[in-house]
Specification:
alpha+beta; about 50% helix; globular; disordered C terminus
Length: about 120
């Protein structure tokens, strides 16, 4: 059975003056994937625009998640939107790595070998 993203959380911690203290967390199957720190503005964007579309997406299908996130941001080409998509994507890779119990680098290498990792601007 494939684990699916069950929750998207944005967590803010205390940090020193001028330091970013916001983290993106994806939850599935008892594990949490993290990315950060990001700016509070990026965290708000994740909560407002990307959290809902990420819910229910398979943890191990990064292309499908990326497509859902890009659809959610539509034509928003802002730096904040791009960073927010990246933050959720990186948290998903961390979550996938934890659930598969292998390093992210190994997952990325396998994805690259299969031809699945392609960089395209928002889809």
């Amino acid at each position: 059975m494939v684990a699916r993203i069950g929750a998207v959380r944005v967590v803010t911690t205390e940090a020193g003056l001028g330091e970013d203290a916001t983290f993106v967390a994806l939850h599935a199957a008892g594990a949490i994937g993290w990315y950060g720190p990001v700016t509070a503005e990026i965290g708000r964007y994740v909560e407002a625009v990307l959290a809902q579309p990420a819910l229910g997406e398979p943890v191990n299908d990064h292309q499908r998640l990326h497509a859902a996130l890009c659809k959610a941001i539509r034509a928003d080409t802002s730096v904040v939107a791009s960073w927010a998509v990246g933050a959720v994507d990186c948290a998903a890779w961390d979550l996938h790595s934890q659930l598969a119990q292998v390093p992210v680098a190994d997952l990325l290498a396998a994805e690259h070998r299969s031809g699945g990792c392609r960089s395209t601007p928002h889809g």
